[in-house]
Amino acid sequence: MTAGLVVVSVVLLLAVSGLAGLLVVRLTDRDPQVAIDAAAPASVPGTTQELDQRTDPRPTVDPARGRPLRIEVPSLGIDAQVVAVGLEDDVLVPPSDPTLVGWWRDGAVAGVARGTTLLAGHTYSAGDGVFDDLGLLEQGDRFTVTTTRGRIPYRVEAVRGYTKDQLAEVAERLFSQTVVGQAVLTTCTDYRAGGYHANIVVVAHPTRQQLTDP
C-alpha cells in the first residue's frame, strides 16, 4: 500500500493468550502514525540509541528486493519463517504460531529504495515467542532477510524501548514509507500486572552495496 491512499486504523497485536500490548498504526494521507494503546511506564529497560534516519537523495533498490520469507538473527539464535499478515476487521495480528514472524503486507517489501518493512513477532510470557529476546540486540548486530529473490543482510542501527508517549514522538519518521529503505522489527516488552506496556523497536538498514536503480 502506498501511503496517502487511505485512512484506516490498524491494531497490531503483539502477544498471545491475552497478554498483549497494542501497537496502533494509523495510516494517514501522509505517513503512518503509531502509538501504544497501553499505560506508559515511567521507564523501559533497554538500549536508547538515537534513530538513524538516512537522507540519501538517490536511494537504490536491492537486487534481492521482494516479499520476506525468512529472517535469521544469529546473535539471538533466531531462524524463523516470515508470513504475510493483513487486516482482519482493522486488526493486524501476527501469526497465531508464536515461532513465526509476521510481515505487514500493506507496507514495503524488503530491499525497497524507500519505505519501511515492518516485521512483528510475539513475545510470550512462557518464553516461547520468536522475538522474546529482541531487546538484547545492539547497534551493529547483523541479521538476514530471505526474500523471493535472494538474501538481504541488515545492520542494526537502533534498539529502543518505547512508552506510549515516546513512540508517539517518533512515530511519523519511524514507520515512514518515504525514508530510505529500512526494516523495523517490533515486539512487546515491559510485562507487569498481567499485560505488556511498551514495545521494543529495532531499526536496521541493508549493508551491502545496492546495484540497481529504483
UniProtKB/TrEMBL annotation:
Pfam families: Sortase. The active site is at H122, C188. InterPro entries: Sortase (IPR005754), Sortase_dom-sf (IPR023365), Sortase_F (IPR042001). One of its GO terms (molecular function) is hydrolase activity. Residues 39-66 are annotated as: Disordered. Keywords: Hydrolase. Transmembrane segments: none annotated. This is Class F sortase. It comes from Nocardioides piscis.
